[in-house]
Amino acid sequence: MNQTITQAEPTLKTVPRMITRIFEIVARADRVGVVVTRIGLIVVLLWIGGLKAFKYEAQGIVPFVANSPLMSFFYADPGHYKAHMNPEGTLVPENVEWNEKNQTYAFAYGLGAVIVLYGLMLCLHPWLPQVAALGGFLVFVMSLVTLSFLVTTPACWGACPRRRQPRLSVLERGRTVGNQGCYYDGRCSGRDGRFG
Q1: pLDDT of amino acid 119
Q2: How many angstroms separate the Cα of 68 from the Cα of each of 54, 61, 62, 72, 79?
């Protein structure tokens, strides 16, 4: 019996060391998490910024920019965008012409360039961490402006008079309801009286 206890003592002494070693490894892994998160953010910024070069993406942000008090001044005629919205997947030549006169595409190119620039600033972290820190702050400010679209864009809020809630991510049978209704349970439906 005495012999068993003495054999177990070295094992019991190594357990705290093993636990400490595990915690040390996990503590160093946070650096990996930060790097992976930064790379993910860079990819998203480059992707979204690059998409702004395409007409469908430029036209897709028109309601947000036109209704934003922070950004509507970039457009020549932000008040009349609804009459010139293209159905999804199509480019109506008259609407494309109006968007060109409205400076929709020029603004989208500029915005895309700024978003790509923010992504590139974050890429410089290993060499110029100060530039990356500035880029991170600018991304934070851009996120606040983007979130302000939820408040300033009328199409983002439900039309139900009982409760005003964002229309975002409302799902029905696995698809987004979007602008058609504001309640999943059907208490208040869209313009045509049904969801979807």
Answers
A1: 98
A2: 21, 11, 10, 5, 11
Q: Work out the number of other CB atoms within 10 angstroms of the CB of residue 21.
A: 11
Calculate the CA dihedral of residues 91, 92, 95, 97 and round it to 10 degrees: 90
Measure the CA–CA gap between 112 and 106, rounded to whole angstroms.
Answer: 10
Question: 63-72, 117-126, 168-177 — which one is most confidently predicted on average?
Answer: 117-126
**Tokens found for residue 103:** 């400076």
- Structural domain spans, the chain: 2-155, 157-196
Contacts of 148 (CB under 8 A, 6+ apart): 68, 70
Query: To the nearest 10°, the Cα dihedral for 160, 165, 168, 170?
Result: -60
The two three-digit tokens of residue 16, written as one number: 């705290």
Read off the pTM: 0.73
